[in-house]
Amino acid sequence: MVGKLNEYRLIEGTITCETGLRIGGSQESIEIGGMENPIIRHPITDEPYIPGSSLKGKVRSLLELKHGRVSPTGEPCGCGKCMICRVFGPHKTPHHKLGPTRILVRDAALTDESKAKLEKAREDRGLFYAEVKTENIVNRLTGTAEHPRTIERVPADTKFKFEIAVRLFEDDDEAQIMSLIEEGLDLLQQDYLGSSGSRGYGKVELEYEVS
Ligand SMILES: [Zn+2]
After folding, report:
1. How far is the CA of 72 from the centre of ligand 1 (A)?
2. Closest Cα partner for 11 from 187, 143, 178, 196?
3. How far is CA 170 from CA 5, 164, 173, 180, in A?
4. 172: CA distance to ligand 1 center in Å?
5. Distance between CA atoms of 99 and 111, rounded to whole angstroms?
6. In the chain, N or C terminus with fewer CB closer than 10 Å?
C-alpha cells in the first residue's frame, strides 16, 4: 500500500553541452542522400531536444552501476524493492508494492539563448541546428582513414532547459529520494549523455535549483 500523494518537488535548470551531444533520431525519416546518422529533432520545428527518456535512462543506469544493481541480463533493475526501483519504477515488474514511479523527467528543449544562436547559424552558415561530423576508421596496416561516415550532433555550448518533477507520498523518505536523484545528476556530469562518450561526446554540465 502507498499513502496519499503529499507534494511535488521540482528540479529545474539547464544542461550545458561541454562537448558535442548526440542523441540519435529515427532513420526512417531520412530521404535518400540525407544524413546517415541524424539526431533526434522536434517533428514540427526541427529543433534538437533531449528526450526525458534518454535523461532518465542514463541517470538510472549510472545509479545502478554505482549501487551494484546491475542484473545478469544487463536490463534495468526490476527487483521491486530497492530505492532505484522505487524512484524510477521497477523494470518489467507489474506486481510490486512501491506505488507509482516517483520521478517524472520532462523532455528538455533548447533555451531561448541557444535557440537564437542556432537560428543565426542557420541563416548565416546554413547549419541545420547541428554540426555534421565525419568520422573514419583508421586502417591498422596502412594508417589511412577509411569508411567515412557522417554523424550529426548538437554543437558544444548548446544549452537545454530541463525539468524533473518528483512525487512524494505520505510514507516516503523525502531526503533519501532527493539525494538519490541528486547523486544520479552528479554521476551524469562525471560520465556522458547520449552516445559515443568514449570518443568525447556528451560531456554535460548541469545547473539547477530544487524547490
Ligand atoms: Zn531494484
Report:
1. 13
2. 178
3. 6, 20, 9, 18
4. 16
5. 34
6. N
